């Protein structure tokens, strides 16, 4: 692993000198030769794991290869005066226990909840000068039904029932997120005591079954069917189905017609903010301010965080147990345990000596599906986008739809399918699926007065282009120009408002953030790589085949998104193991 260049970017938090940075300056130059636990990578999961371990009395150090903490949850000033959530950009899935137990509000976390939260403008010829239609969804169900009735009265009546149906499934899955999966290894090969202890891991499954009850077969279909099939059973209007289908494909190299895509429909109802289920919001100061708050909570209890300290290797004793790490500069740091917030591929194929891992395990890790369709484009603009379907005010002040996830090229699920098919042929989508967000519409600290930051989460773009070609600057700019042309069709004048842009294709996301294949989840969130099988079967409980080495990032259960559950769960498993040593 090598440290990557910083380019023009500068790390920015909610304040110029967050508490964790002050604590870091106190510990800089004070690297100890030994800690109880070492965490590889200061992504949000790694920081969460460190914060909990330190609270449990485990002396913990975190080593981050970049100059800024947060992993993909960072704020960077790429263009002077404009602060971007450069990779992840929305918050909802972070577990409520983490908010309260780590006292994140006390440590500076401030949120901006979005209502409405979804806006899908149509590309329509305005007959008789009419404004094109759009679909605006928020927390007011009566208003949602009124919006949906533009396209189908039947769908307007069905929508509350659909939301209640999905809410119940999310409620059932909730207990599964906050504990390790059932320990099949203990069931198969453990002692009698280990087998009895592992029975406790069945409790969340039992709770889920009780919540779903006799409707379990219906919910099983949601988890295994295609999103299109699920949505077709509820609705008839394409704008509504396509808008909801974006939740099923976001960040995934899949399309609404592929079986298993129905599971990710849950993402729009799984989270909560400020006690409001299904709410999504922006973090004041960008996503890096969330990482700063977690780091502040961690350092307040004694965690040591070191940036620009790349872990080169996990050290193993002659007896086959982890005994620390070696940094890129040659420094050796001893520890009883090592938790890796890096991806499973980096952890087990690059950092861990291969002779200590079973060959079959290594092969399974190498075969993980890491395909990613995502190109993230961060844009600085000197005025708000002015959509034909919802024109701006004369003074250009933010309107309700500006705070939403704005879905473009989303009038029909077939458009999403065609965009996917382009990428299968090694071509960036001709009409990419675009999720456009303007966090500065609610948080003016992110941009100069009158200006805004725009986040474009776009797909589908292949990792390798047709003919085996790699992305170059010309290809990046050509794709970004195509995305901007699409936005221009919905919001004339957008291209003229652009001050600067930052383009991150799948290889760029891999290079900058260590995301294998550019995959924001570390590996695909498909059913064959979830729960019992994340990252691989028999090793889904955060422990690895090498004693003392644990996985605590998005490649572990319950997966990706800014959730923190993997870090929290892994910390509890590690603490139990340390107590029994």
From TrEMBL:
Q: Tell me, what's a Pfam family for it?
A: Amino_oxidase
Locate the Amine oxidase domain: which residues? 46-497
Q: Which SUPFAM superfamilies match?
A: FAD/NAD(P)-binding domain (SSF51905)
What subcellular compartments does it reside in? Answer: Mitochondrion matrix
Highest taxon of source = Eukaryota
An example GO CC term for this entry is: mitochondrial matrix
Q: What is its main location?
A: mitochondrion
Q: Which GO terms describe its molecular function?
A: oxidoreductase activity
Kindly give the InterPro entries that the UniProt entry links to this protein. Answer: Amino_oxidase, FAD/NAD-bd_sf
User: Flavoprotein among the record's keywords?
Assistant: yes
Provide the alphabetized UniProt keywords.
FAD, Flavoprotein
Assembly: Interacts with COX5B; this interaction may contribute to localize PYROXD2 to the inner face of the inner mitochondrial membrane.
Role: Probable oxidoreductase that may play a role as regulator of mitochondrial function.
Q: Hey, which family's this protein in?
A: Belongs to the carotenoid/retinoid oxidoreductase family.
What is the protein's name according to its record?
Answer: Pyridine nucleotide-disulfide oxidoreductase domain-containing protein 2
Origin species? Odocoileus virginianus
Recorded name of the encoding gene? PYROXD2
């Amino acid at each position: 692993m090598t440290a990557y260049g910083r380019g023009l970017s500068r790390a920015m938090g909610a304040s110029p000198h967050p508490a964790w940075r002050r604590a870091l300056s106190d510990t800089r130059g004070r690297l100890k030769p030994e800690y109880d636990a070492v965490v590889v990578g200061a992504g949000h999961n790694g920081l969460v794991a460190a914060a909990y371990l330190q609270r449990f009395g485990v002396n913990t150090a975190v080593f981050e290869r970049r100059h800024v903490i947060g992993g993909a949850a960072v704020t960077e000033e790429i263009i002077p005066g404009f602060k971007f959530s450069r990779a992840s950009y929305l918050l909802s899935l972070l577990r409520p226990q983490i908010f309260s137990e780590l006292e994140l509000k006390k440590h500076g976390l401030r949120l901006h909840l979005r209502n409405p939260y979804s806006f899908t403008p149509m590309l329509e010829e305005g007959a008789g000068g009419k404004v094109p239609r759009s679909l605006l969804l928020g927390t007011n169900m009566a208003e949602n039904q009124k919006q949906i009735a533009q396209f189908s009265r039947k769908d307007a009546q069905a929508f509350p029932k659909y939301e209640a149906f999905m809410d119940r499934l999310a409620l059932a899955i909730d207990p599964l997120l906050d504990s390790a999966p059932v320990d099949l290894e203990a069931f198969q090969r453990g002692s009698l005591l280990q087998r009895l202890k592992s029975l406790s891991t069945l409790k969340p499954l039992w709770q889920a079954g009780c919540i779903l009850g006799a409707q379990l077969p219906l919910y099983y279909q949601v988890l295994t069917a295609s999103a299109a099939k699920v949505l077709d059973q509820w609705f008839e209007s394409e704008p509504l189905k396509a808008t909801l289908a974006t939740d099923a494909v976001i960040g995934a190299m899949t399309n609404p017609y592929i079986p298993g895509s129905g599971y990710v429909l849950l993402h729009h109802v799984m989270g909560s903010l400020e006690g409001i289920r299904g709410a999504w919001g922006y973090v004041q100061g960008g996503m890096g301010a969330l990482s700063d708050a977690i780091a502040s909570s961690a350092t307040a209890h004694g965690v040591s965080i070191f940036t620009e300290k790349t872990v080169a290797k996990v050290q193993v004793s002659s007896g086959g147990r982890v005994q620390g790490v070696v940094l890129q500069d040659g420094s050796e740091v001893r520890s009883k345990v090592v938790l890796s917030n890096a991806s499973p591929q980096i952890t087990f194929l690059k950092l861990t000596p291969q002779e200590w891992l079973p060959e079959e395990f290594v092969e399974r890790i190498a075969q993980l599906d890491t395909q990613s369709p995502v190109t993230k484009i961060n844009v600085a603009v000197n005025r708000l986008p002015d959509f034909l379907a919802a024109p701006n005010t004369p003074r250009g002040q933010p309107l309700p739809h500006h705070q939403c996830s704005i879905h473009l090229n989303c009038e029909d699920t077939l458009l999403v399918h065609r965009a996917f098919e382009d990428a299968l042929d090694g071509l960036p989508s001709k009409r990419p699926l675009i999720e456009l967000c303007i966090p500065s519409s609610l948080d003016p600290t992110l941009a100069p007065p009158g200006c805004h930051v725009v986040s474009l989460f776009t797909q589908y773009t292949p990792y390798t282009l047709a003919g085996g070609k790699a992305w170059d600057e010309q290809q990046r700019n050509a794709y970004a120009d195509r995305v901007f042309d699409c936005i221009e069709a919905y919001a004339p004048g957008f291209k003229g408002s652009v001050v600067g842009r930052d383009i991150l294709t799948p290889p760029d996301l891999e290079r900058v953030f260590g995301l294998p294949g550019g995959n924001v989840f570390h590996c695909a969130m498909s059913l064959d790589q979830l729960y019992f099988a994340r990252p691989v079967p028999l090793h889904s409980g955060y422990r690895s085949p090498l004693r003392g080495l644990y996985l605590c990032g998005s490649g572990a259960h319950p997966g990706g998104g800014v959730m923190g559950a993997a870090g929290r769960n892994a910390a509890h498993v590690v603490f139990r193991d340390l107590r029994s040593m």
